[in-house]
Amino acid sequence: MPLFTIALTQTTINLCTLHERLQPLAHRSAASVHTHTRTRSNGPRSPPSNKQCFASLLNAFSKHPTQLMQIHALLLTTGLSRKNSLITSLISALLLMGHTIYPRRLFDTLHKPRTFLWNTLVRGYVKNDLCAEALTVYDRMHRAGIRPDEFTFPFVIKACAEVAGICGGPVVHAIVIKYGLAFDTIVRTELMIMYAKFGDLGAADYVFESMTDRDLISWNALITVYAQGGHVDKALALFEGMNLEGVRPDSVTLASILSACAYLGSLEVGMWIHRQIIKQGLHKNLFVDNALLDMYAKCGSMEMAGWVFDKMCQRNVVSWSTMIGGYAINGESEKALELFSCMWSEGVQPNQVTYLSVLFACSHAGLVRQGQMYFNYMSRPGSKIQPKIEHYACMVDLFGRAGYLLEAYNFITRMPIEPDSGVWGALLGACTIHQNMELGQHVADHLFSLAPKAAAYHVLMSNIYAAAGRWADVEKIRQRMKDHGVKKVAAYSSVESNGEIHVFHGGDQSHPQCVKIYEVLEELMKQLRNVGYTPRTSVVLHDVEMEEKEAVLGTHSEKLAIAFGLISLRSELPIRIMKNLRICNDCHTFSKFVSKVVGREIVMRDKNRFHHFKGGVCSCKDFW
Description:
The structure is a single chain. The chain is mainly alpha-helical. The protein has helices at 15-22, 50-60, 65-78, 84-96, 101-108, 115-127, 131-143, 153-178, 185-198, 201-209, 216-228, 232-244, 251-264, 267-279, 286-298, 302-311, 317-329, 333-345, 352-363, 368-379, 389-401, 405-413, 421-433, 437-450, 455-467, 471-483, 514-530, 546-554, 557-568, 585-597, and strands at residues 492-497, 500-505, 575-579, 602-605, 610-614, 617-618. Among the domains are: 15-111, no CATH class; 388-489, Serine Threonine Protein Phosphatase 5, Tetratricopeptide repeat; 492-618, no CATH class. The protein has 30 helices and 6 strands.
């Protein structure tokens, strides 16, 4: 009995007959095998060899795991299981379908597999996101004395970038140099990406600069990694370098750099790139147009996003979903739902992202009935799109924001899937808004168990205690964070001016224009107090005197960013601010007053959504 448990139905069947019987099921993909080699001119054709038959079958059933395993059973019974080419094809096909256990057992039965087979297994593990296993195979390969080649290292380096950390990567780099593969373009590109993922930008730049044969793929790879890793300045510098060297960007380059602008909220640079796209005639590319939509939406400019959307030659579900999501996060829920209706009328089927955006729009506008309707429609029996955990979290947020805390809690208890920290976190956020301490404590217990290292949930519970004046409990939360090594994320706000991003932290005095900023802020405070602004000291999480609380509030990063915007941007331009955390209640009120007193529009993106302040009113209608 072989090592594998396989149903052998016809072990003695003639292989050529098997090939003929299975041919119709293969959708005729193996028909070419029947063109046999002629033994002589106009003479009879010789029958296909067993190896040819199996090669054809493996190709025909490369997407059918059960049939592939049956073919393997026949290989075992006919003695062809030692043919490396056939076994390699079998292992490759199974790995491509996501099967890893069976191919690994099959590989382990082989006697002295060649380098190509080792590479196949390493590549399969990496493609199936099993990078630790890929490195284990590589280590075994190394110990067996098998010499890796230029096809081995790209996937080994990919695996290192995911699991090995900064220690393992340079070791592999040294081995690459040892085997004389340091100048292989693909290997060097993967090394460059690996170092960038580690945050070792110096090493990434060194590898990149030393590439004499770098191409568009190398540029794209590094730009993408920099953009996704938050090193937006590096990504933009590389993009500018491409233009200086006359390298024409492709759709991947442009989408990556636009993604960087969206992440940073860099509207000025994004608009400059848009002009380059139009200049180079790349604006009719669906991939690029969708990236433009995303950039404008995440920079708070739905007018420009709408302009791009209207000009698009073709649209797909990503285009529609991006626009719906853009309207939702910018406080235009009605437009989001109208566009969703248009999407249906155009015959475009929504996906899970679309529904998530729709539920978000309902949640942030208090449209409970509509949100329930869309969720129920999505959850109906037979629906092709079933809710995921994110949709359940959005429904909890919908109920909670509207004040239906008990309904939100009951919704969680009836969920058909296990609620995660995102679901419970949505309810804790609602408890913070509505100051429900009893339920908040219960929910916090779940969260501290599910996500003991998450600072955000500790801060939310601390907010509830602070608002109630329970400073002893606030101190307990702080001590718990300290005991568990939980560090609060430092808040910051950024403003773009003349293509440069200026970042401010609370109480920041490092900016070159610091003195002027504080002078403007002090004068602004006087003006606002005269028209009714009073600092909301309840948001300060410290039991200190009122004057000290007001001093802390007065130098929040949002306020410093607004003051800088007033002195650095032209009066007709909105002040666009990006904040990494949720805006506090006091800064929200402060921004409304500034927009009215100074007559300046302020666009602020926080962790959850956009706030457009104009004439003393916010687009969120204070429902946030």
